[in-house]
């Protein structure tokens, strides 16, 4: 299996562990990721709030580059990139006027996009293309004894009708349970972490993050598993701020779901970028399987 | 807030202009016309994780739009507090694209310059857009430095310990890298601007259909 890979800007800096662990996990499963050459920023939510047409055209440049490749399947791990690229496809499909404008803009830059690229999330690829059975076959270690709070965040399941339920998705729960872990009772699995509000309205965002951490702690999760660099940043790096603000004492590791998965697949902590996490992950890992 | 007494259905000139700008923005949102189906059930407000911090909750935004008070919506905190989690859009029984409409409202407010001086969301978005235009990609550190220098340099100092921790973990890159296709990005920007310009300053005459649900339908036809 081969896919085009769109890391996104966050995975080059703060989200490096996500990039590293994703590549390690896919390699361990024998799936090739080929990085889209010279990709640009998807525009995220911020470009869209300034100028819709330009934002869509900037995002569509990536899809146009991807469309030159025969694979036509683009894996985007960051939730913001994933949702923006999907949204670009949908807006261009649903609005002839936008389609015409964006086509024109792209042609000025010598590009063409025919809506043929499918945007995929790595969780979707792992669960639905590779399959839980194949993942379990490749596992070297059991995750038995690990209690994980699967946190999907908002944008990989919404607003598009994607690969899972939009309020109570289960793909990550099933993945970790198949590997022996237990999913903690964690109803706010798709509740928003606040995203960029941590910068613009920190008071509002700290409250959201506190509620998520509280629920994970109350249900005795060893760690939170996330699918998004923004969620990971808010939940992990801002834990001390939450503790100071609400007089709590949270010290919950927040890992990328690919990091935990990588441990089961026998990847090293170094490969998975676990040494780059601010709160070290300490989980009772089952014995290695021969 | 009380508004001055006026002839029912007649909008003041400022409101008319804002409405025009908003409808222009909403025209490019697929499904925007569904705003006409709102039942005022309040599912959006109840589902919103940040409605507690809004001065005008989402349901009221639609009610005010219908009442011809778009100026009030644009002056509220609401449109800037939305974190784009799309819960309202997902749950709306009428399929209203609330989040996307809030984006259209943000763009309307930016276009009409209806935001306070050094307003956080505006400063952040503007810094983000200029980085992307310049390098082709976002650069987290430059974005935050630029944002805090313009907003609140002291907050930048408070962020230093966290920045240092991330730096030691190898999660900060110091210098942005320009993508090779930055010329293509420039061409995209140029072509996009050329589509928007020249912008005739239209004098919008009053028309009864400007108020109420008919407005969006009309703008789309």
Short structural summary:
The complex is a heterodimer of chains A (290) and B (221). Chain A is α/β, with parallel strands linked by helices and 290 residues long.
Written description of the protein model:
- The complex is a heterodimer of chains A (290) and B (221).
- With 290 residues, chain A is of the alpha/beta class.
- In chain A, 46% of the residues lie in helices and 9% in strands.
- In chain A, the strands form two sheets. Chain A has a four-stranded parallel beta sheet with strand order 2-1-3-4, with helices on both faces.
- The radius of gyration of chain A is 19 Å and the shape is globular.
- In chain A, strand 5, helix 7 and strand 6 form a beta-alpha-beta unit.
- Chain A has twelve helices and eight strands.
- With 221 residues, chain B is mostly helical.
- Chain B contains twelve helices and no strands.
- Chain B is globular.
- The two termini of chain B are 34 Å apart.
- In chain B, 43% of the residues are buried.
- The mean pLDDT of chain B is 86.
- The chains are: A alpha/beta (290), B mainly alpha (221).
- Chains A and B meet through helix 2, helix 3, helix 4, helix 5 and helix 8 of A and helix 6, helix 7, helix 8, helix 9 and helix 10 of B.
């Amino acid at each position: 299996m081969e896919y085009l890979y769109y890391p996104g800007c966050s995975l080059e800096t703060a989200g490096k562990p996500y990039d590293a662990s994703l590549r390690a996990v896919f390699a361990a499963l024998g799936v090739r990721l080929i990085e889209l050459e010279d990709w640009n920023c998807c525009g995220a939510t911020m470009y869209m709030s300034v100028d819709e047409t330009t934002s869509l055209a900037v995002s569509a440049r990536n899809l146009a580059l991807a469309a030159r490749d025969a694979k036509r399947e683009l894996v985007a791990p960051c939730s913001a990139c994933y949702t923006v690229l999907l949204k670009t496809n949908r807006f261009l499909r649903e609005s002839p006027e936008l389609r015409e404008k964006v086509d024109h803009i792209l042609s000025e830059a010598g590009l063409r996009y025919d809506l043929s690229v499918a945007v995929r999330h790595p969780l979707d690829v792992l669960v639905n293309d590779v399959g839980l059975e194949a993942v379990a076959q490749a596992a070297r270690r059991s995750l038995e004894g690990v209690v994980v709070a699967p946190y999907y965040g908002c944008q990989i399941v919404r607003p598009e009708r994607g690969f899972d339920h939009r309020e109570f998705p289960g793909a990550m729960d099933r993945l970790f349970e198949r590997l022996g872990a237990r999913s903690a009772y964690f109803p706010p699995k798709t509740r928003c972490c606040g995203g960029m509000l941590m910068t613009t309205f920190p008071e509002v965002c700290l409250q959201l993050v506190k509620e998520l951490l509280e629920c994970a702690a109350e249900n005795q999760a060893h760690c939170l598993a996330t699918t998004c660099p923004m969620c990971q940043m808010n939940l992990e790096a801002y834990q001390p701020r939450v503790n100071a603000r609400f007089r709590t004492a949270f010290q919950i590791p927040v890992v990328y779901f690919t990091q935990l998965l990588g441990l089961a697949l026998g990847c090293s902590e170094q490969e998975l970028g676990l040494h780059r996490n601010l709160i070290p992950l300490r989980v009772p890992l089952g014995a290695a399987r021969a | 807030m009380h508004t001055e007494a006026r002839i029912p259905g007649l909008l003041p000139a400022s409101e008319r202009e804002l409405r025009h700008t908003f409808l222009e923005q909403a025209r490019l949102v697929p499904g925007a016309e569904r705003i006409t189906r709102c039942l005022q059930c309040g599912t959006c407000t109840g589902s919103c994780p940040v409605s507690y911090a809004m001065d005008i909750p989402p349901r009221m935004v639609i009610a005010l739009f219908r009442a011809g008070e778009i100026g009030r919506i644009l002056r509220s905190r609401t449109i800037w507090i939305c974190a784009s989690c799309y819960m309202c859009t997902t749950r709306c029984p009428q399929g209203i694209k609330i989040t996307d409409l809030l984006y259209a409202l943000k763009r309307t407010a930016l276009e009409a310059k209806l935001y306070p001086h050094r307003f956080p969301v505006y400063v952040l978005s503007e810094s983000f857009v200029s980085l992307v235009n310049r390098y082709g990609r976002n650069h987290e550190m430059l974005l935050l430095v630029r944002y805090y220098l313009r907003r609140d340099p002291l907050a930048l100092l408070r962020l230093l310990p966290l920045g240092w921790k991330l730096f030691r973990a190898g999660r900060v890159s110091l210098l942005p890298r320009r993508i090779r296709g930055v010329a293509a990005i420039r061409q995209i920007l140029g072509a996009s601007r050329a589509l928007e310009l020249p912008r005739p300053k239209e004098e919008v005459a009053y028309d009864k259909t400007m108020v109420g649900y008919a407005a969006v339908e009309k703008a789309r036809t």
